[in-house]
Amino acid sequence: MSGRARLWLLAAGLAATAALLVAACLRLPDFGGHRHPYGDLAMAAALRQRTANAVSSVNFDQRALDTLGEESILFAAVLGTVVLLRQTRDERRAAPQPAAVAPAPRRYGTLLLPVTLLIGLYVIAHGHLSPGGGFQGGVVVATALHLLYIAVDYRALERIRPVGVFELADGAGEAAYVVLGAAGLLAGSAYLANTLPHGTFTAMASGGTVPLLNAAVGMEVASGVVVLLAHFLGQALEIVKEGGAGSAGEGRKARR
Questions:
Q1: Tally of domains within the chain
Q2: Residues contacting 39, CB < 8 A, separation 6+
Q3: Fewest CB within a 10 Å sphere: which of 36, 81, 141, 194?
Q4: Rounded Cα distance, 208 and 195, in Å
Q5: 97 or 72: which leads in pLDDT
Q6: What does each C-alpha distance from 165 to 31, 168, 170, 250 come to in angstroms?
Q7: Distance CA 134, CA 114 (A)
Q8: Domain presence at residue 149
Q9: What is the pLDDT of residues 15-72, one digit of tens each?
Q10: Tell me: the pLDDT tens digits for 148-189?
Q11: Residue 29 belongs to some domain of the structure
C-alpha cells in the first residue's frame, strides 16, 4: 500500500471516529442539570449487588470486562519489560556495594515500611466498602517494600523481594481474574457475571465476586510493580557491560 493510500485510510478512520464521538456527545445530559442517568443506573446496580463502594461496583461488576483489559495492559507491560531488560551475553552482574544512609531516612523509612504495607493491604481488602481498591492498594504495597531500598540499601531490598516469587504472583493475579470470570459461565450466566451471594450491605462478605476480583487485581498490580522496579533497578545497579563499558555503572553501584 502506498503512502498516499495509507493517509487516506487513516483520514477515513479518524473521520468515522470523530463522527461517532460527536454523535455521542450530542446525546449527553446537560452539564449541571438534574438528569444523571449514568450515575443513577450505577448507584442502583451497586445497591442491588450490595457493594457499598459504587466505583468498585462499576469496575468489578458493571464493567468488569473493561477492568480485565486494563489489568492485562499492565501484565503485558511487565512481560515486555522482563523480555527487553533480560541479561544479554555481553553483560554480567556485579553486586552493588552497601550504601551509607543518614540516620533520619533510615529510622523513618524503616518505621514507615510496615505502616505503609498495612495501609496498602487495607485498601485492597476494603476496596468494595470504601474508596480504594486493587489498583490503588497494589501500588501502595509495592511502594512499601521499596522503602527499604531508600532506608537501607539495595541488598536489603533484595532479601525481602524474591523476584521469581513476585513474577509467579503477577501471573497468578491475572489468571485468577480470568478464572473468576469463567465462574459466571459455569453458573449459567455471562462471563464475569456477579453470580455469588451478595451478602449483607457494608459487610466484609458482601458484593459477590467484587471483593474477589478486587483482590486478584491487587495481587497482580502489587506484584507487577515490584517486578517492573526490580528489573529497572537491576539494569541500573547490577548489570555491567563486559570490558571497559561498565565503569559508569560501577560508579552508580558504589552509591547504593
A1: 1
A2: none
A3: 36
A4: 7
A5: 72
A6: 49, 5, 9, 28
A7: 18
A8: yes
A9: 999 999 999 988 887 777 787 888 889 999 999 999 999 999 999 999 999 999 999 9
A10: 999 988 888 988 899 999 999 999 999 999 999 998 898 888
A11: no
- The candidate with the shortest Cα–Cα distance to 209, out of 62, 28, 26, is 62
In a domain, 3, yes or no: no
Residue in the block written with cell 487495607: 122
Enclosing domain of residue 78 = 36-255
Domain assignment of residue 177, yes or no? yes
pTM given for the model:
0.81
Nearest to 64 by CA among 222, 201, 224, 210: 210
Residue pointed to by grid coordinates 446496580 = 45
d(CA 177, CA 164): 21
Taken as a whole, the chain contains a residue count of 256
Q: Are 162 and 156 in contact (CB under 8 A)?
A: no
| Of 169, 174, 168, 120, the residue nearest 144 (C-alpha) | 120
Task: Provide the percentage of residues in the chain whose pLDDT is more than 90.
Answer: 66
- Which distant-in-sequence residues (6+ apart) come within 8 Å of 207 by Cβ? 49, 50, 51, 52, 56, 57, 61, 128, 194, 198, 199
Residues 6 or more apart whose CB falls under 8 angstroms from that of 115 comprise: none
Rounded Cα distance, 165 and 236, in Å: 21
Pairing mode, if any, of strands 239-241 and 91-93? antiparallel
